[in-house]
Amino acid sequence: MGIYDKQPDVAVDAWVAPSASVIGEVRIASQSTVWYNCVVRADVNEIFIGGLTSVQDGTVITVAKTNPTGLPASTYIGNHVSIGPGCTLHSCTVEDEAVVGAGSVLLEGSMVEKQAQLVAGSVVEAGRRIPSGQLWAGNPAAYVRDITEDDIADAIKNAKEHKALAVEHSAEFLPLGGAYLDAEKQS
Question: Which class would CATH give 9-186?
């Protein structure tokens, strides 16, 4: 839905679950998925979700008008990213091929660099940078080990699997509009 003069821009082949809320200046790129009960709210700044990215059930993504860290107050999520269920992302950056484990929290100005991964339940403090190619865990998140080639391959495979699953889910819902009325009249 739009708010003020800001309207979402969702790619034709992206999938947003019927119970998800995408509000304001949100751009969702090709083949991405936003799952059930997610809230993606960009009322005072912008949110970008890259291609073939999965935002899983119950995740909340928000922005701030300004950021006390001096870093951008918008939220940017790259391509081939997997964000687990129940996460909270606020005015942060998640670069390409990163994984954010279920229930993780990313605070304002934090950054998860390309091919970095967070274990479920991790909390990334305001302004903290998770370096590329590393696995971090905990509250606050701390370095665990370097990412392997298998970890990277699994992350990309996961993104593709979520897109395929979204195709199945979208087939279960009738398109917006009155087409269902016509279908009922024919039966």
Answer: mainly beta
